[in-house]
Amino acid sequence: MREEIASYRLMIIIQDEKVLLLHQFVKDFLVGSSAESSSGHFINEFEAHARLAHRCVAWLIQDFNDQHLARPVRSRHHISSEDRFLSYAIRSWGDHAHLAQSEFKVHDDQAEFFSVDSMCRSHWLELFRSKSAVWFINKGMEKGFSIFHVASRWDIPALVDYVYSREDRNDHFSGFNDLKWKNSRNLTPMEEAAKHGHVNVLSCLLNQETKPMKNYKHVIKRTVENQKNADKILDLLLNRRGDKITNTEEIVMTAARWSNKETMTLLLNRRGDQIIITEEIMIAAAGNYGSGEGMMTLLLNQRGDEITITQEIVETAAGNYYCGEKVITLLLDQRGDEITITEEIIEAATRNLSRSKKIMTLLFDRRGDEITITEGIVEAAAENQGKEMMTLLLDRRGDEITITEEIVRAATGNEYGEDIMTLLLDQEEIKSLSLSGGETQRYCFKLDRGDH
C-alpha cells in the first residue's frame, strides 16, 4: 500500500518515518466509492471509524486501570507517543463512534466504560474537562453527565440501545424518563440532543420511553433556540408527542428570536391556526442574528395582513449586529409607508457595533430627508463607534452638527477615541469649545500638538 501511495508524490509527504502531510486526495484514494469498497482494496470508512473508536476506548480503559488499580503509571513528565495517543483518545473517541454510524457497537470487553454507573467513564470525563482548552466544548459536562448525555452530545444511538438491551439492567431502566437524568446544570439528555441538533439519538430516546412525559416544554425550548436541524427535531416531536406540546405561543416567540425560517415554516404549517403574529414576535424576529432577514420575509409574506410595523420593530432591526441592514432594507421595501425614521431608530443604528455604517448609509440614501442629526446621535456615535462612523456623520450632515463637551467626553472614553478626537479637532467649533474637564482638556491639547 505504501508503494502505491508513494506513486502519488505530492499527495503525501513523509519525513523520518513521520507523515507530515496528507492531501485530501489520499483519503479519496483510500476510501473510494461504496462500490469500490467491496473489492477489499479500499478502506470502508465506517468500519475504520468504528475500529478507531474502539481503539481509543481501550486506551482510556487501560489508562483508568493504570491510575486506579495500582499498576505501573506512565510518567506524565515526558510527552511520549503513548501520551499523545491518550490525548487523542480523550478528545476523539466520541467523534469516531458518531462517524461510524451503524457500524459502531459496544464490545463486551468495553462494558465497564459504557455501563450506566461507570468510574472508568467518569475518569475520561475528568480528563476531557481538564484537557479541553475551549470552554464551550466541555460546557455542560459537569457532574451528572450520564451515558445518555454522552450519546446525545455525540449523536451515538448505539449507546442508548446498549443500555436497554442489557439483560442485567434493573427495573429502574424499564423505560427512559428524561427528567430523571438531569445533570448538575439541569440539562437532560433530550435537551442535550435538541441543543446539538441530533435527530437520531433523540428518536432513540423517545423509543425507549414506556410512558411519555406530561409535556416536552424543556426539549422544545432547546430545539427552537438552536438552528441546526431544528425543523427536523420539531417535526419529530410534533409527530411523536404532539398531544403533549401545547405552549405554541412561547415556542413561536423563541423560534422567531433564535431559530431559522425552516423551523418557523413548520410551525406555521402545523400549528398555524393557533398562532397570532404579535408585535413581540416581530420584534424577536427583527433581532434574530442568524436568520433575521429570512424570518421577517417569511412572516411578512405568509401573515402580512396581521402585522403592523412599529417603531420598536424597526429600532430592534437597526440594532441587529449581524444582519441589521438587510432587515431594514426588507422593511423599507415592503412596508416603507408605515415607517417613520425616528431619533431612537438612528441612535440604535449608531450604537450597533458591527453594522452601523451600512445601516446609516442605507437610511441616509433611502430616507435622508426624515433624519435630523441630534446631539444624542452624535454622542452615541462618539461613544460606541470608530472614525468611519463619525466621518460619515460629518460628511453627510456636518452643517447640522455642533461638537459639544458631552460629545468630546464620549469620544475620550472610546477605545478608538484618539482617531475620533483627531477628526473632531479638525472641526472649527471645537477650537472655541470651553471644556471644564481637565482630563478632556489635556487629551485635546495633546492631540492638537501632534504629541501621540
UniProtKB/TrEMBL annotation:
It holds the Pfam family DUF7104. This is Ankyrin repeat-containing protein. PANTHER family: AMELOGENIN, NACHT DOMAIN-CONTAINING PROTEIN. The lineage of its organism: Eukaryota, Fungi, Dikarya, Ascomycota, Pezizomycotina. Coiled coil: none annotated. It comes from the Eukaryota.
